[in-house]
């Protein structure tokens, strides 16, 4: 890790949907953040659900995101190492970002060490107990057969179906969000199970849209990166310590969680 350079982590931007701000305003905010960190970033981890939907046909990708993708290209052309995780909304990333941005695509978990600190990263979907319906659907959606079948659809039709599915997911999860959560998050329970066999200094996730930084066991810290819909939160490791930060704090009266999971 170069001296004076940092590692940045962010997730759940859900580019392409309109939430508290318009999709364009949110994209502009992400671009301003990337511009802010450009001089001191060595590695950038985008930990899933960067897009609200993504599918790569052989010669077609979803339109939009020009400013965001252009800024990523600027960073990677300058030598920044980019990692992009498959989330539950953008699990159909194949080789487009590898070819265009020299990105490393991470389908599941990813572990690494920097400056004597160990990291465990995962988007966070389908981990821990419960959520059996989604775990079943995830296996189907990630299957080669399902991807092949979807690729046979015309993009206008296929992306239209995906948009309707995404809306249904948001409505369903809004209802779930009204219920009292288990005192211990499923991802937290999963993390403690992993720690039974190996120690990590930091276990970093997205998916839940709730910024969290809390101790687990044996000095491990559980970090949830939050989102870029309400919280505009991210984490940065400077080679010595890791901090959870906010590019722009949530406005008064806006909850620090979102139903878009």
From TrEMBL:
Recorded superkingdom: Bacteria
Residues of the Calcineurin-like phosphoesterase domain: 6-211
InterPro entries (UniProt xref): Calcineurin-like_PHP, LpxH-like, Metallo-depent_PP-like
Entry keyword set: Cell inner membrane, Cell membrane, Hydrolase, Manganese, Membrane, Metal-binding
GO cellular component, as recorded: membrane
UniProt xrefs under CDD domains: MPP_YbbF-LpxH (cd07398)
MF-aspect GO terms: metal ion binding; UDP-2,3-diacylglucosamine hydrolase activity
One of the GO BP terms on file: lipid A biosynthetic process
PANTHER family, alphabetized: UDP-2,3-DIACYLGLUCOSAMINE HYDROLASE (PTHR34990:SF1), UDP-2,3-DIACYLGLUCOSAMINE HYDROLASE-RELATED (PTHR34990)
Protein name: UDP-2,3-diacylglucosamine hydrolase
Organism: Mucilaginibacter pedocola
């Amino acid at each position: 890790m170069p001296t004076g350079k940092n590692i940045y982590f962010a997730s759940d931007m859900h580019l392409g949907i309109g939430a508290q701000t318009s999709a364009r305003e949110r994209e502009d905010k992400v671009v301003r953040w990337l511009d802010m960190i450009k001089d001191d970033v060595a590695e950038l981890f985008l930990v899933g659900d960067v897009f609200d939907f993504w599918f790569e046909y052989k010669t077609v990708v979803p339109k939009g995101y020009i400013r965001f993708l252009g800024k990523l290209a600027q960073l990677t052309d300058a030598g920044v190492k980019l990692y992009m995780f498959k989330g539950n909304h953008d699990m159909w990333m194949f080789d487009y970002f590898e070819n265009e941005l020299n990105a490393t695509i991470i389908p599941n978990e990813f572990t690494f060490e920097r400056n004597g600190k160990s990291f465990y990263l995962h988007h966070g979907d389908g981990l821990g107990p419960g959520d059996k319906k989604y775990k079943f659907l995830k296996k189907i959606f990630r299957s080669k057969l399902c991807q092949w079948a979807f690729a046979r659809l015309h993009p206008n039709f296929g992306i239209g179906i995906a948009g309707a599915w995404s809306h249904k997911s948001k409505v369903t999860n809004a209802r779930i969000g009204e219920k009292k959560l288990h005192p211990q998050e499923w991802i937290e329970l999963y993390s403690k199970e992993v720690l039974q066999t190996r120690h990590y200094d930091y276990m970093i996730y997205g998916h839940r849209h709730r910024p969290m930084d809390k101790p687990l066991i044996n000095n491990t810290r559980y970090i949830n990166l939050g989102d870029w819909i309400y919280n505009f939160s991210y984490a940065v490791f400077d080679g010595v310590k890791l901090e959870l930060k906010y590019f722009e704090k949530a406005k008064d009266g806006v909850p620090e969680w979102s139903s878009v999971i």
